[in-house]
Amino acid sequence: MKKIKIYTQLLLVALLTPVLSACDQEDDVVDIFTGKTWYMTYIAVEGQNKMYDFWQGNEEARIQSFKTIVGDNYTLTFDGADLGNSIGGGTFSGKVTSVNVSGSWNANGENRTLVLETKNTGTDADKYLGKAFVEGLKNAVRYGGDNKNLYIYYNEGATTKFISFAPQRNN
């Protein structure tokens, strides 16, 4: 009888473990943001997965902007300390095309809010993608993704856009 009780208890623990661990819906913010260099892949309107047309049909300007998406342009790196469900005191830095971006950041793994406080960004030479990249960082409100894809959402008037990032590969 004692063996049956022990087996029953072990079975209950085995069955309840996945249920209890599934309750933790908090992101590992440190794993998502830090330890890699993120490079921009595109900027889109929320709900769409294609590059937003910043050029309004100006094909030459679009081609010139796309030529700037090389090397360490449109990149970000983050560092910070885990404070439970958020990162605090973290800094970020990156490069657009002609200006560097930097500042402090805080992300909450529970509700996915993101605050980027940019410092001394200046105006980028690319008045389309460069400008959108800088403005997106300045107006960041939340993030999405994981350690393989990062999306920084920002508001532009009544429209929500996002900057899509992937980890930079070592060459």
Structural class: alpha+beta
Cα-based radius of gyration, to the nearest Å: 21 Å
* First-to-last CA distance: 63 Å
Strand order of the largest sheet: 5-4-3-2-1-8-7-6
Strand content: 35-45%
Low-confidence stretches: 7-24
Major sheet description: 8 strands, antiparallel
User: Any idea of the CATH class?
Assistant: Mainly Beta
CATH topology: Lipocalin
Number of domains: 1
**What order do the SSEs take from the amino end to the carboxyl end, as H and E?**
HHEHEEEEHEEE
Q: Can you summarize this structure?
A:
Keywords: Signal. By secondary structure, this protein is of the alpha+beta class.
What does this structure look like?
- The chain has 171 residues and is of the alpha+beta class.
- It is 26% helix and 37% strand.
- It has 4 helices and 8 strands; from the N terminus they run ααβαββββαβββ.
- Strands 5-4-3-2-1-8-7-6 form an 8-stranded antiparallel β-sheet.
- It is globular, with a radius of gyration of 21 Å.
- The chain starts with a helix and ends with a strand.
- Residues 7-24 have low confidence and may be disordered.
What key attributes describe this structure?
171 residues; alpha+beta; Lipocalin; eight-stranded antiparallel beta sheet; 4 helices; 26% helix
